[in-house]
Amino acid sequence: MQSSSETMKAPPHRSILHVDMDAFYASVELLDNPALAGKPVIVGGLGSRGVVATANYAARKFGVHSAMPMGQARRLCPHGHFQPPRMARYRELSSQVFEIFRRFTPLVEGLSLDEAFLDVSASVRLFGTAIEISTKLKTQIRLETGLTASVGVAHNKFLAKLASDLQKPDGLVVVPVNRVTSFLDPMPIKRLWGVGPKTQPRLQALGILTFGQLRKAGADIVRPVLGNRTEHFLKLAAGEDDRAVIAEHPDKSISHEITFDQDLFDTDELLAELQHLVEAVGQRLRARHSLAVTVSVKIRDASFRTFTRSRSMPAGSNSTMTLYRLARALLLVWRKENLTTPVRLLGMGVSGLEHRFANEALMDSGDQADLPAQQRLDKLLDTINQRYGDAKIVHAMTLRRRRDRS
């Protein structure tokens, strides 16, 4: 572990970008439907239990924000355009954006579909300063995807992340090494990572409202509130962060889940939902040229009890039919033990991933666990759905899903 002196010496030599796509899901909806221009767009679950995933800036003027219950969002913005998520489309554009990131540096640490840290320290000789790289990156994203991004530039992750949020949308904020204190000190304490709704009022009760006040208060004053993380918070308040950008690794697991607007009792409806989840997981596996060894099913009942059932196969698979057969068996075993239990949430995932294929041509070789006919069917469905969007062609079982869900 680095000492404080080492921490202070290392960061100024780094150039870190935090790139955050602007209202990503909502911006994609605007991109695909120009008729929505200028209108409030809210993306999220449309049912009674749904929450807002993203709201565009027109919707935010009405007080709508992510993680807000959808019912509250409808009350605040009754004339908004409410849209269920189209995850396949968002992943498609996210892949394009991340490909642009990697043109400038291999050190890309994805945080989600729409944001990432980039370490461009070794790229300045090729592409210019960190500011020039940021400008070029933003331009390429706009030209190639039609979307905008906000970028924060600093010598560490913490500062870059704070900076990217200050001038949205389409912002570019730089934190020079010699201006860290003046940048941080006026910021409200709620922007400090880890200070949540319980900690914030306790700090405010001590008269600590800003980063600067926290930094000047000292450890003895704030330790009763911050406990064993006191030194960590004080370092952040001083702009110290020695974490490196870690290039992303292949996923160790892939999963999808759905929370139902109304609890489900009917087994056939549960199996239809399961088929839908398996289709989504299988498509992602094949897109990454991966096989899965272990299949898991997650069930949450109306009392918020969560059950997980898993089973491994002797050989890896990415066939929708193979994965569904195993997931179906797991769900039915649980159902037999819980015949009258209402289901609030259903999830399906895979793990033990094997990156088996070096290129697209090798996909045809498949795996011994899957019949060639299954492989050909999956490949055909993937091609059609990638061209025409989510769920244009699905397995017949999926058609039994309730019409009020998408």
Say what the CATH topology of the largest domain is: Alpha-Beta Plaits
Runs in which pLDDT lies below 50 for 5 or more consecutive residues are 1-11, 357-369
Terminal CA distance? 48 Å
Which class do the helix and strand fractions yield?
alpha+beta
Number of strands: 13
Task: Tell me the β content.
Answer: 15-25%
> What is the CATH class name of the largest domain?
Alpha Beta
**Average predicted local confidence, pLDDT:** 86
Shape: globular
* Largest sheet descriptor: 5 strands, mixed
Q: What oligomeric assembly is this protein in?
A: single chain
Kindly provide the radius of gyration, computed on alpha-carbon positions and rounded to a whole number of angstroms: 24 Å
Order of helical and strand elements? HEHEEHHEHEEHHEHEHHHHHEHEEHEEH
- The spatial strand order of the largest sheet comes to 5-6-1-7-8
CATH architecture of the largest domain: 2-Layer Sandwich
How many domains, as an integer? Answer: 3
Structure, explained:
This protein is an alpha+beta fold and 406 residues long. The chain has 3 domains: 14-175, Reverse transcriptase/Diguanylate cyclase domain (Alpha-Beta Plaits), CATH 3.30.70.270; 181-237, 5' to 3' exonuclease, C-terminal subdomain (DNA polymerase, domain 1, Orthogonal Bundle); 253-400, Dna Ligase, domain 1, CATH 3.30.1490. 40% of the residues lie in helices and 20% in strands. The protein contains 16 helices and 13 strands. The strands form 3 sheets. The chain has a 5-stranded mixed β-sheet. Strands 9, 10, 11, 12 and 13 form a 5-stranded antiparallel β-sheet that branches. Strands 3-2-4 form a 3-stranded mixed β-sheet, sandwiched between helices. α5 (87-104) packs antiparallel against α7 (130-145), α12 (219-226) crosses α13 (230-237) and α14 runs antiparallel to α15. The longest helix is centred in the last third of the chain and has 21 residues, at 267-287. It is globular. The termini are far apart. Mean pLDDT is 86; it is low at 1-11 and 357-369.
